[in-house]
Design brief:
Layout: E1 3-7, H1 12-23, E2 27-31, E3 49-51, H2 60-65, E4 70-73, H3 80-85, H4 87-108, E5 112-118, H5 141-160, E6 163-169, E7 172-173, H6 186-195, E8 201-203, E9 209-210, E10 213-214, H7 215-227, E11 234-238, E12 244-245, H8 246-257, E13 264-266, H9 281-287, H10 295-311
Parallel strand pairs: 1-2, 1-4, 2-3, 4-5, 5-6, 6-11, 7-10, 8-13
Antiparallel strand pairs: 9-12
Helix pairs in contact: 1-7, 4-5, 6-8, 6-10, 8-10
Length: 312
Amino acid sequence: MSRYLVTGGAGFIGSTIVDALVARGDTVRVVDDLSSGRRENLAHLDTVELIEADLASPGLATTAVDGIDYVVHAAAIPSVLRSVQNPVPCHRANVEGTLLLLTAARDAGVKRVVLASSSSVYGDSPTLPKNEAMAPNPRSPYALQKLIGEEYARLFYRLYELETVSLRFFNVFGPRQDPSSEYSGVISLFIAALSEGRSPTIYGDGEQTRDFTFVSDVVNGVISAMQARDVAGRVINVARGGRTSLNRLLAILRELTGITVEPRCVEPRQADVRDSQADINLAVRMLNFEPQVTLEEGLRRTIEWQRTSAAS
């Protein structure tokens, strides 16, 4: 049994990671300021310790890592749009919080830190699929902040021998993603609009593509990264490895829900990337990673969760 800290552990991805760790018999502590995370995501886990606090607060990271073996750092303000609108608070959460956590983990003798990074660091390069050897080209404060976090993690491994692994997630979706937030992922927003009979909003022509990845596959990648050999200091893509346009996504959702509301197309958003697809060969080789959930199956599970959640 190991002792884990999951930052952002009351959030969509974080709480799903917590579920998996608890199911393995690990002891889990969560730090979350509940700005986007929810207590109810952890309510069924009576063994989990929740510290409701801002990770960037003075001294908080030191308290959080006390007695901890491994850290999953999923805390962030995970929104390109919010970072464009308000870069300063996003920098505090996404960069300062990360640096404080890495420093505290180093001082506490933590065995390994796995950071949740983002495909947004690749920017809008036309090269597909995106592989880890490509030069980053961030187009938003959020993307730059994630890249800075990766570089800090790499530096802490080289300089202090703190084992770190940065995982670049690609368009994660699934249960617990909040459809009520304008900053939420496109899938939860599309499902919410269809269920309410509203026209889903598409920014641009809808032919932009994304590598939609079901949350349980991402969690499997995180768990593997905690124990895998020879991955310290690396950056690794974790994704399904496919590419789906927003128009195709909406067509699948309309077929699955039986609701045929037409979309509302508006001007593209600033800093949005046109196309995204992961090369997952490194994850397959280093993490023994293999996506298990197809896009259609993941969408079915997400639709069912949103329907159940709305009814409760």
